[in-house]
Specification:
The protein has helices spanning 14-21, 79-91, 97-107, 115-130, 175-178, 186-193, 197-204, and strands at residues 3-7, 25-29, 42-47, 50-55, 137-138, 150-152. The protein is built from 7 helices and 6 strands, in the order βαβββαααββααα. The relative contact order is 0.24. The chain has a 4-stranded parallel β-sheet with strand order 5-2-1-6. A two-stranded antiparallel ribbon has the order 3-4. The protein is an alpha/beta fold and 210 residues long.
Length: 210
């Protein structure tokens, strides 16, 4: 089975998760440096007004080119509460919101110092909801050119990209207003499709690249 290498994202989208759902082996890059405007601290949701982006605030001037695992979350605003309320506003009427809401809400009541720790905690939650075993590996050293049998997706997935997966349409909360909107956080898929989410992710997976 193919192996892909990628950096850890905040509530990642289909391009991150689809290969894993389809049975690919996952290796998460933990020796990289933080880069702005990436999925490391951003995710996309669908609101009644269209796509919106949630961004985790970081200590200003401290995170650029800093090792990802050392990046600290800023504490000058109640961003966890803001993010959770936004999630409620976007998906409170979705078919499966109540199924997932309590356990997710409890995570937003905690305060993590480091961005990596927060993202990893949510990633484990996502895998549990998708019924995907948490059997991924972590990189042990920075390697700009991984082995030939590893597909390097580092930096390939940004909050505005979708090219690594096929679009599979599923019912969304605001389809009547916006049509189908792809490239969103996995939360959209979970809240709208529930137990079918993993199957839909499998359908999104493109064939193993050469």
């Amino acid at each position: 089975m193919a192996t892909y290498l990628i950096e850890l994202h905040y509530l990642p989208g289909a391009a991150f998760l689809a290969p894993l759902a389809a049975g690919w082996d996952l290796q998460i890059e933990q020796m990289d440096h933080f880069q702005k405007k990436t999925g490391r601290n951003r995710c996309r949701l669908l609101s009644s007004y269209g796509m919106i982006q949630l961004s985790i605030p970081l200590l200003k001037g401290k995170h650029q080119q800093q090792p990802y695992r050392d990046v600290r979350i800023a504490r000058d605003s109640p961003w966890e509460r803001t993010h959770w309320r936004t999630i409620q506003s976007c998906y409170g009427r979705s078919p499966f919101f109540e199924h997932y809401a309590d356990t997710l809400a409890s995570l937003y009541e905690n305060r993590e110092k480091f961005l990596w720790d927060w993202n990893m905690k949510l990633f484990h939650w996502v895998l549990e909801q998708l019924h995907i075993p948490a059997s991924f590996a972590l990189s042990t050293a920075w390697n700009p050119t991984p082995e030939s049998d590893i597909h390097d997706f580092r930096g390939a997935i940004h909050p505005s990209d979708q090219g690594l997966v096929k679009e599979v349409v599923y019912p969304q909360v605001f389809t009547d207003r916006h049509g189908f909107t792809g490239d969103l956080s996995v939360l959209d898929l979970l809240f709208c499709a529930g137990p079918q989410a993993r199957m839909i992710l499998r359908e999104m997976t493109r064939p193993t690249p050469a």
